[in-house]
Write a structure and sequence with these properties.
This protein has helices at residues 14-24, 69-82, 109-113, 132-141, 158-171, 175-187, 235-238, 241-245, 257-268, 281-287, 351-367; strands at 4-8, 29-36, 39-47, 62-64, 192-193, 203-204, 217-218, 233-234, 253-255, 272-273, 276-277, 292-295, 302-305, 310-312, 315-319, 325-329, 334-340. It is built from 11 helices and 17 strands. With 368 residues, the chain is of the alpha+beta class. Helix 2 crosses helix 6, helix 2 (69-82) crosses helix 10 and helix 4 packs across helix 5 (158-171). The radius of gyration is 19 Å and the shape is globular. The strands form 5 sheets. A 7-stranded antiparallel beta sheet has the order 1-3-2-17-16-15-14, with helices on both faces. A 4-stranded mixed beta sheet has the order 5-9-4-6. A two-stranded antiparallel sheet has the order 7-8. Strand 12 and strand 13 form a beta hairpin. The chain has one domain: Beta-lactamase. It is 30% helix and 18% strand.
Length: 368
């Protein structure tokens, strides 16, 4: 059996066991964390940080979590809304005047968070993603594909720039700077949007699915990360230094399961963790208000969108291309986070959900 490092409550022993099984089945590396009431009951990791399996996955290893990053960007917007600095019902153009171009004057801030703004496709070159002014200017000039608010289509790469530019216009800080100062710093969460060079030696590069190489792209509808049109992202793009340094707040966050679970425990615990309050209870509840239910035009499947989070019954969260996932259970004040460098084909990937279910086994024992 794979060697699993870290700590866990005996009630949750199914979780490290499930991670070990994934590594035994061929996964390169990963980490899992389960937080209850803002404290870890599972914090484990194992495997390797590189495709050649020469560098062990360590306690401080971080990797690109792809679209799990969206939950961090949403948290920034929710904090500003809770402070009264951002009106979710306001037109985006109130904060970003140039955005009113091409028929977007009626796009509301909540439409950005709920994937209903009609701007799902990134149509520029990959290199432009690394240039914040160019990327946001492109989106400001773009016309919506549908009447905003009437349909949903997963904004795979665009959502982070859209929400992030609103954050920047209000605060004068990039979303990565805001997150670092207002969320990661106060909580002590090792999560980064715009990774500096000092952290490079801790990064586990993404490993393509078996049989694929680094040209493997996110392009087929039906997966967690699947734009229907526009520029397809490749694994090699996500593994580049340019991607690492850039702020692409829908997809370029770097962290581990511990940092993801800690940050999102704010949402599971009524807005406060370890004595640090980032949101009011009402500010947290706002995130779970359903904005759209129905067929997502990009993902090609039924979805329920809240404000920056997918809604799955009484749980909330989202996953990223390649398998990383965060799931929030406010009723039990629990967060389950899974972060991995081993990608799998989206249609075949149930790893994150399997780990969530193994955590529920422990939760039942904790409640007994």
């Amino acid at each position: 059996m794979a060697d699993i490092q870290g700590t866990y409550d005996d009630l949750f022993s199914a979780v490290p066991g499930a991670l070990a099984a994934l590594l035994d089945a061929g996964d390169t590396g990963g980490s899992v964390a389960v937080f209850v009431d803002g404290e870890p009951v599972v914090d484990v990791w194992g495997g390797f940080a590189d495709a050649d399996r020469t560098i062990p996955w360590r306690q401080d290893t971080i990797t690109n979590v792809w679209s799990v990053t969206k939950t961090m960007t949403a948290l920034c917007a929710l904090i500003l809304a809770d402070r009264g600095e951002l009106d979710l019902d306001a037109p985006v153009a109130r904060y970003w005047p140039e955005f009113a171009a091409a028929g977007k004057e009626k796009v509301l801030v909540r439409h950005l968070l709920a994937h209903t703004a009609g701007l799902p496709d990134w149509e520029g070159p990959v290199e432009e993603l690394y240039d914040w002014p160019a990327a946001t200017a492109r989106l400001a000039a773009q016309a919506p594909l549908w009447e905003p608010g009437t349909a949903a289509g997963y904004h795979s790469l665009t959502q982070g720039f859209l929400v992030g530019e609103v954050v920047r216009r209000i605060t004068g800080r990039t979303p990565g700077e805001f997150f670092a100062g207002e969320v990661a710093g106060p909580l002590g969460a090792d999560f980064h949007m715009g990774l500096s060079a000092e952290h490079d030696d801790r990064v586990a590069r993404s490993v393509p699915p078996p049989g694929r190489d680094e040209d493997y792209a996110a392009s087929a509808p039906g997966g967690t990360e699947a734009p229907a049109a526009g520029t397809a992202m490749r694994v090699r793009d996500g593994n580049s230094l340019s991607w690492r340094r850039a702020q692409i707040p829908a997809a370029s966050g770097f962290g581990n399961a511990r940092s993801v679970a800690l940050a999102q425990s704010v949402m599971a615990c009524g807005g406060a963790v370890r004595g640090v309050r980032l949101l009011s209870g009402a500010g947290v509840a706002r995130a779970w208000e359903e904005q759209f239910r129905g067929e997502d035009r990009v993902l090609g499947m039924p979805v329920s969108w809240g404000l920056g989070y997918g809604i799955f019954g009484t749980t909330y969260g989202w996953g990223g291309w390649g398998g990383s996932l965060v799931m929030i259970e406010p009723t039990s004040r629990m967060v389950v986070a899974y972060v991995t460098n081993q990608m799998r084909e989206p249609a075949e990937d149930t790893r994150g959900l399997d780990l969530v279910m193994s955590a529920y086994d422990g939760l039942q024992g904790l409640r007994a």
